[in-house]
Each structure stands twice: as structure tokens, then as C-alpha cells.
Structure prediction request, 578 residues.
Amino acid sequence: MRIVVCVKPVPPEPTLDDAGRLDRSGGAALTGVDESAVETALRVRDGVGGEVVVLAMVPPDAADALRPALAMGADRAVVVAGDALAGADLLATSSALAAALRGLGPDLVVLGAASGDGNGALLWAALGERLGLPVLSRAVEVTVADGRVRATRQTESGLHRAEAELPAVLALSGEVCVPRYPSFRDVIAAKKAVLETVTPAELGVPESELGAAGSRTRVLAAAPAPARGEAEIIEDDGDAHERVVDFLAQRRLL
Amino acid sequence: MTRRALLVAEPRSGALSAGQLGVLSALAGVAQTVEVLLPVEAEGDAAGLTGVLGRYGAGVVRVVTGLPATAAPRVAVVAALHREQPYDLVAFENSSLSADVAGALAVRLGAGVCWDLVGLDDVAGELVGRCLALGDSTAVDVGWVGGPALALFRTAALDAQELPVAGTPELVAVPPPVEVGPDVSVSEPDGAGETGRSGLDTAEIVVAGGRGLGSADNIALLEELAQVLGGAVAVSMPVVDRGWYPYAHQVGQTGRTVRPRLYLACGISGAVQHRVGMSHSGTVVAINTDPQAPIFDVCDLGVVGDLTSLVPRITALVRERSGA
Ligand SMILES: Cc1cc2nc3c(=O)[nH]c(=O)nc-3n(C[C@H](O)[C@H](O)[C@H](O)COP(=O)(O)OP(=O)(O)OC[C@H]3O[C@@H](n4cnc5c(N)ncnc54)[C@H](O)[C@@H]3O)c2cc1C
Ligand SMILES: Nc1ncnc2c1ncn2[C@@H]1O[C@H](COP(=O)(O)O)[C@@H](O)[C@H]1O
Prediction:
């Protein structure tokens, strides 16, 4: 069984550059939710056998951020990178990743809960549509057996169970499991491992569907969000409850 | 230019959230024709909701019955309606279901989708979405290239504005989709999330607690204060993870977004994943032992103090002043 985990390494504190694009200069790392996705994939593989491939569409200099996933036990890492991919929105990102996934032929695609910068929590739905696969989102618990994936999903209406036939797309609801800690030896081995790369031309998708050209949204302006007004900060010396209740009364909140 | 807009509604327990009515108001502000796609269990369920939809700007309500709570059939219905008569704008209030629908629709219609919207305007004939990005630190204006513009609004982010004169929407039945493509099969919620019973979606006052509670027992302190203030209890993620309180009460990125008149945060550090769920509350009061806690950056009144001693004193004083 081939399990492909989509991850997006991002700078730990992403910011926007002057053009309103995500500033990638800060050095990228896997996020906690994407580590959960890798761990989930490894557990499935350890149960039913097969291989785990980590897949990311990132600028070339972020590729090394996939090595920790190899150290955890992923079998391969594939990086989709190239100038033609810059400025991709959801539509263009899903077009590149879906093409890469078609090339890999996964039985199960696993995604994290949200990317650390874009935070759209939408990519799985776009990938499922492009690949014609069923989508199980917001999973907190996953089992794979008998050619089916079963998940407990966490939604506004509580926990419920859902299942789909493989191949399928699975997305998690957060940091749902604790990622394994790689041994020193595995970290060293992952440092030397060869990362596979896929160029935009190799995707077999017209350039008009990739990167900025394939995007249907754009950032018009970006500015620091207005802050809340000055706060009053007091210390509780045993009588702060009076200030709190007076404050609530002044604001007609009682 | 005349614009056609569609709200893909998601009634829960037979009602529409205030946030969805807020989205409807936003559509009425930028579009000449405003329609609502209303999935209901039985046809009779629609009648009770048409009145309120008319008050907030719906001209046409398209009713579809018997859809399972999965994305694929909704994607098929919206795509079919769009094929018949194209929309310029298709909007949703964010939820786990509507996000799945919007993401798939973007691909099916070749359309751009913007998310985390907290506003929508017409600027010189172009739609401009207002959103907050990077943990609410950045206000971003976004636009769409071509149509339809898919817009996913942040939960509970917009105020619903009643029209001066309520319209009487035309009710149209939509046939359920024949072909929906691959889908998942779901079981009924098992109640672990205690659907709708948190009271958070409608509460004007929210008393929230975090890991600083120290133990499940101290939840009672919040419940008592919430009770005297007439509010509901919310918690941060670690409280849910430790099993101290049910998930339905979790506020934040992976929980609910609330916008009450008062949010009282007790023993919550104010991590960005929590703040995105509460930062638009009217008044924020924070209680925390750590003067450096980031929650103090987003509050109106902050008290450096121990919640286990302060919260019961607040409860007692409110009770005393209200003469109860
Ligand atoms: C993808 C993702 C999604 C997430 N989604 C959510 C979400 O939906 N909701 C959410 O809440 N979090 C979410 N988190 C977790 C978030 O990052 C924080 O870890 C979490 O919000 C911290 O909760 P807390 O403030 O209760 O705990 P802590 O950060 O541990 O803060 C506890 C606070 O209590 C104070 N304190 C301790 N004792 C007392 C006392 N006696 N009196 C007063 N104050 C005291 C401490 O000074 C401290 O500031 C998410 C994280 C990720 C990665
Ligand atoms: N550029 C990318 N390359 C690979 N996987 C991605 C990329 N962007 C997002 N993902 C995956 O999709 C999930 C949801 O991302 P998003 O929809 O951007 O919030 C993330 O947790 C990742 O698993």
C-alpha cells in the first residue's frame, strides 16, 4: 500500500512581504499538525505494510525541511518545486499537487489540519475533487483495513464515524497524535538521503494552470490588523473583584 | 452591473446561525439578486426559515431535501444551479462541511476561493474581500479573478442587518442530485460533542477557562460565574484534551468562533490558535497569574491574579449587587 502525506513546511512565524506574499526567508520547518499527518501515515503503514511518501510543493530552499519526516521513518520524500509554481492559490496548488499525486498513484493521501501560513483548511477537498476520490476530513482517529479507511471525525455536531473505500483522501483535525522521536542514527541517515524532485514541466499540467497564472484569487492589500485599544491592567491585591464588577457595570454587561 | 449571489446555508437543529444571517446581509450589500440554497430534512422545514431569510435579504430560497451531511451532494447541487444560471458570488459561513464543499467547488467550477473573510465590499464595481490572516495579525484585502467568487466567511464574524422592509422570498424546490461522484458514508453523531448544547453560538456572555484552571474541579467556578452573569462556559483546547470539559465548548482554531458582548478569559495564555476564536468579542476581560501572558494584549481589562481566588469573589459580588 502506498501512502502519500502532503506537508507544507513553513517559517515558524510567517509574515507577509511588501507584495502581500508570504515571506519565505525565515527558514521552514514542519508544523505540528503536519507531523501528526506523517505519524498517522507511518502507523497505517506499520499496520498494513507498504511505503510512506512525503510530498510538498515548496520553494527549493525549503526542501530540507522534509528530512525530519524521513528520520521519523518515511520511505521517500518528493519535492515539487520551480519558478512556475510561485504565487499559487488553492486552485493552482491543488492542480500541481494533484498532478504529482497522479504520478505517485497513492492508495491513501494524508493531509494535516491546516497549513501554518495559509490556514485555509481546504486543500484536501480540492485534491479529492481533482483526483475523483472520496474525502474524509477532520479525523481524530484512523484505521485502515479491508480496503477501507475508517475515521472518527470531529465536527461542529460532535464526533461521528465515517468511512470510504480506498483510494481516498484523509485530513486530520489537529495534532491528533504524538509524532515519534527519531533516533540519532535515523537523523543522520535522513541528512544524507536523496530527496526526489519534480519540476513543473514534469507535472504534465499546462503552465496556465500553475502558480500565479493558474490562480483565481489575488491579494490586493495587506497591513497590520488594527489592535484593540489600550487595556487597563491591574493586580489583584484581594480587591480586584470590585474593579472587575464595576467595569462590567460601566459597560452595561451585568 | 448586476450581481447574482448565492448563500449555501447550513441549518443546524432547524435554525440558521446568526453568522449565516450576517453573511446573507453582506451579500445583500453587494448583490442585486440574492438567493439561498437551503438544505432541509423535509420540505415542510423550509417554511419556518423563509421568513427570517427574507428579513435579511434573500429574494429566492432554493430548497433541497434529504441530502446526507456530506460534501459531495452539495457540490453537485450548487454546480448544477450555477450551470443553469451562473452566479457571480457563492458564499458560505465556515464550518467543517462548508469548507469541504467550497474547496471542491473551486476545482469543479475553476473558481477562486477566499477564506477567513470578515467583510465583503464593492469597490468601484469589483468585489473586495476583507480577511484576517496569520493569526489575526494582518488585515488582508483579497480579490477574485473571473467568477464565480467563492467566499468562505469566518464563523460568527458578521452582524446580521435586518432590512427596513422584509422581503417575501420566492420558494423553489431543487431536485436532489442524481450523480454525486465518490463520497464517504457517515454515521450519526454519537453525542460526544453534545451538539448545540454548549449554548456558545448564541451566548452574549462567555466565561472561558484554560489550563490555568489546574483541575477539572475548578470548572465549577466558571459555571457558577456564567450562571450569575447569564452566560455560557467556553474552554481552551488543553482543557478538552485533558477530558475536563466536552469539545463542544472549545473555542479557537479547531473549535468554535464566538463573538459575545463579554468574553472573560480565566487561566488562558492567549495562544494565537485560541485568539482567532474570540478576538472579536465586544469586551474582553482576562485573568492570569502571568503578567506577560499574551491574552493581556487583546483584552480591555486585565487582572494579574489567581483565578481560583478571584473568580469566586466576582461571582459573590455580582450575586450581592443583583440582590440574589
Ligand atoms: C493546529 C492547532 C489548533 C489549535 N486549536 C486550538 C483551539 O481551537 N483552541 C485552543 O484553545 N487552543 C488551540 N490550540 C492550542 C494552542 O496553541 C494553545 O496550546 C492553547 O490555546 C493553550 O491553552 P491554555 O491557554 O489553556 O493553556 P496555557 O497556554 O498552558 O496557559 C495557561 C495559562 O494559565 C495561567 N494560569 C496558571 N494558573 C493560573 C491561575 N491559578 N490563575 C490564573 N491564571 C493561571 C498561566 O499563566 C497561563 O498563561 C491549537 C494548536 C494547534 C497547533
Ligand atoms: N504546498 C503544499 N504542499 C504539500 N502539502 C500542502 C501544501 N499546502 C498545504 N498542504 C497540506 O494541506 C493541509 C491543509 O492546508 P491548507 O488548506 O493550506 O490549510 C496542510 O496541513 C498540508 O498537509
In short: Chain B touches chain A through 92 residues (CB under 8 Å). Chain B has two domains: 4-173, 205-322.
